[in-house]
Specification:
The complex is a heterodimer of chains A (about 160) and B (about 70). By secondary structure, chain A is α+β, with helices and mostly antiparallel strands. Chain A folds into 2 domains: about 30 residues, no CATH class; about 120 residues, CBS-domain, CATH 3.10.580.10. In chain A, about 40% of the residues lie in helices and about 20% in strands. Chain A is built from 7 helices and 7 strands. In chain A, helix 6 packs across helix 7. Chain A is elongated. The two termini of chain A are about 35 Å apart. Chain B has a single domain, classed as 3-Layer(aba) Sandwich (Oxidized Rhodanese, domain 1), CATH 3.40.250.10. The radius of gyration of chain B is 12 Å and the shape is globular. By secondary structure, chain B is α/β, with parallel strands linked by helices. Chain B contains 2 helices and 4 strands. Classes of the chains: A alpha+beta (about 160), B alpha/beta (about 70). At the A-B interface, helix 1, strand 1 and helix 2 of A face strand 1, helix 1, helix 2 and strand 4 of B.
Chain lengths: ~160, ~70
């Protein structure tokens, strides 16, 4: 639709016309703000925690656990140089504290959502699947933060 | 000739060149969600008359939902 609109504007005489072909789906999935009746305050991206710990594949698990103990978190995401999520180190691995790398300790390929996901849908999914949190990434897999179920439910009560 | 651009170029044009954003989806979809500061001119209503609200001396960025 936007290529036709851009061509139409050019035919009307506008000389400096650009077509953002990926559109608002791309904008929202990058965690950028949206306005409107179902704007950013109804989306997961507005309620996530961005201070969730990360580590690299070759970090040692005991080092990761020490950092987690200091931060108060009980989970850590294994990311690459671009913050693309490769895996997650959860409570079971942390309790084990084996002398292994993060790569060996992680659960690979955790399920993720986009910042633009509608909070009502995400909240329903978390209840249905009994999830306490969900990692939020951009469409190209980069970690944005972690949405806690308690935060989502509190927000849903406020905005409903 | 319109130029296809990505998100980074949209952000640059908005910040550096005062570009105007135009959502060309129907009004109901615009009211549901739109980029900050965007104007709504649905494709079916886009003509010389409705385009008068746009400044000719500044870049215009059109968008819809995704690759449609």
């Amino acid at each position: 639709m936007s290529p036709r609109a851009a061509s139409r504007l050019a035919s009307i005489g506008f000389e400096d016309v650009y077509d953002y072909v990926a559109g608002k789906a791309d904008w929202g999935s990058a965690g950028l703000p949206l306005e409107g009746a179902n704007g950013s305050d109804t989306r997961a991206g507005a309620y996530l925690r961005t201070d969730v710990p990360t580590c690299r594949l070759d970090d040692r698990l005991h080092t990761v656990c020490e950092r987690l103990a200091e931060s108060g978190w009980d989970t850590c995401f294994v990311v690459d140089d671009r913050r693309v999520v490769l895996g997650r180190i959860g409570r079971r691995a942390i309790r084990g504290r084996a002398d292994v790398s993060a790569e060996q300790a992680m659960t690979p390929g955790p399920s993720t959502i986009r910042p633009s996901a509608r909070l009502a849908n995400v909240g329903a999914r978390m209840r249905r699947q009994n999830l306490t949190n969900l990692p939020v990434t951009t469409a190209d897999g980069r970690l944005v933060g972690l949405l806690m179920r308690a935060d989502a439910e509190e927000a849903l009560e406020t905005i409903s | 000739m319109p130029t296809p651009i990505d998100r980074q170029e949209v952000q640059r044009l908005l910040a550096a060149e005062h570009a105007q954003l135009v959502e060309v989806l129907p009004a109901a979809e615009y009211e549901d969600e739109h980029l900050p500061g965007a104007t709504n001119i649905p494709l079916k209503e886009l003509n010389a008359e409705t385009a008068r609200q746009l400044k000719r001396g500044e870049p215009v960025i059109v968008y819809c939902h995704d690759y449609q």
